[in-house]
Amino acid sequence: MEQVHLKYGTSAVDFEIDGAKSVKYLYENKMRVIEDIKAEFLHCVTDGVIGTKPLKELIAPTDPVTIVISDMTRFWMRQDVICELLVKYLHDEMGVGYDQIAVVVALGTHRKNTAEDRRKLASEFVYDHVASVTDHDCDAPDLVYIGTTSFGTRVSVNPLAVGRKVICIGGTVHHLMAGYGGGRKSIVPGIASRETIRMNHERALDPEKPMTDVRVGSGLVENNPINLDMREAGAMVHVTFGINIVVDTSSRHSGLFCGEFDKAWQASCSYVQKGYGLPIDYQADVVIASCGGFPKDLNFYQSTKTLFNASRAVKEGGTLIMLAECPEGSGSKDFFDWIKPLSKGCLDEALRASFTIGGYIFYAACESIRRSKTLLLSSMEPELVRDMGVRSFKDMKDLLAEVDFNGKDVYVIPYGGSVLPQTKEAYERICREAEENGGAK
């Protein structure tokens, strides 16, 4: 009998696995922990910069500066710590006035933040000292058109990213659509128009078949049309400096990759793949995955990262159990709106006709759910996910009553939003691709 303890929202769930043939835990590979983040930051913006000059040589004391940071769904990377160090460095070491610094929260199409959210995201010090800490609005009338990519995407961005020195702070993780988060995603979707985001993200669908394009997926960058388009769009902003954060599953800073916008991001991708990409020998009969607790299971939209990752570890027709409290419900305004075309059997046709980000995440979630019997522990009402093929429970005992562990191979994934199970062949290929595109630090 195996005793299991998994995070769930701001609390935890304890239960037993009885009668299984095997129980194996899937964790990320051992990662370093930065003990002195201030010293690491100073090194990374001076002698340790990647592909460019030290930060001091890129920005003059008279330059207006815009710092782009991520929203609350990515607060696990503790960007507030880095943002505060950066602002103090700009002011104290480089002579940039606080009134010359603006911070923009890269919301993409996500919900607006409260003032308290923005204070938390940027840090109290930054919020109280800089000229402004504002949310990006993808529907704002003053967004600036800066060009069209070779893929045909019209790129319009927040005006604070034009005519100013731009520094982007992002967190690098595996990403379902873009291959990896961080880097150019601070621009698209982060501070781009809704039209730009839609034109980029709709490339997730196969151009001919009713399915996701096989070139799109976690860890895939080389031929991924979404990533390639994002990189072109990001380059149009002429970002002065990129700061890419990698954390371990306890949100402790593990890697800081700073310098030329694209090259520093590429180096962080290699580090992420080697840290969170996990080669597995086989797919299990039963996979139990927690998102890792708050804020990673804040809503179902964010929790689908765990669904996508964990579904790779379960056999076709096996059982996937996911723990995601989701106190905010879907988390995306239009996510569950797509249940209607799903129930009518026209989801692919409807999404192509009126593509949205939430719609595609819903589409991809349905693709993953179809692979296995999917059971969910959540505070959401079960009816919300029933038509997707998910059985949802509010009590773990009720959920486990539906599971037969006897003689089964079981994987337990405590941090499903971070750990990406991969066949050994896929792991080696993706590591090689990440190395060729940037190399480890």
Written overview of the protein:
Residues 8-208 form the LarA-like N-terminal domain. Pfam families: Lar_N (PF09861), LarA_C (PF21113). One of its GO terms (molecular function) is lactate racemase activity. InterPro entries: LarA-like, LarA-like_C, LarA-like_N, LarA_C, Ni_dep_LarA. Residues 283-419 form the Lactate racemase C-terminal domain. With 441 residues, the protein is α/β, with parallel strands linked by helices. The chain folds into 2 domains: 2-28 and 278-423, LarA, C-terminal domain (2-enoyl-CoA Hydratase, Chain A, domain 1); 37-275, LarA, N-terminal domain (Rossmann fold, 3-Layer(aba) Sandwich). The protein is 30% helix and 24% strand. It is built from 14 helices and 20 strands. The protein has helices at 37-44, 79-92, 115-122, 124-129, 194-201, 225-236, 261-276, 300-310, 339-343, 347-353, 357-369, 383-386, 396-400, 424-437, and strands at 2-8, 11-17, 22-25, 65-70, 101-106, 132-135, 144-148, 154-157, 165-171, 174-175, 179-180, 241-247, 253-259, 277-280, 284-290, 314-323, 373-377, 390-393, 409-413, 420-423. The strands form 6 sheets. It has a 6-stranded parallel β-sheet with strand order 3-19-15-16-17-18. It has a 6-stranded mixed β-sheet with strand order 6-5-4-9-12-13, with helices on both faces. Helix 8 packs parallel to helix 11 (357-369). The protein is globular and about 70 Å long. It starts with a strand and ends with a helix. The model has no long low-confidence stretch (mean pLDDT 94).
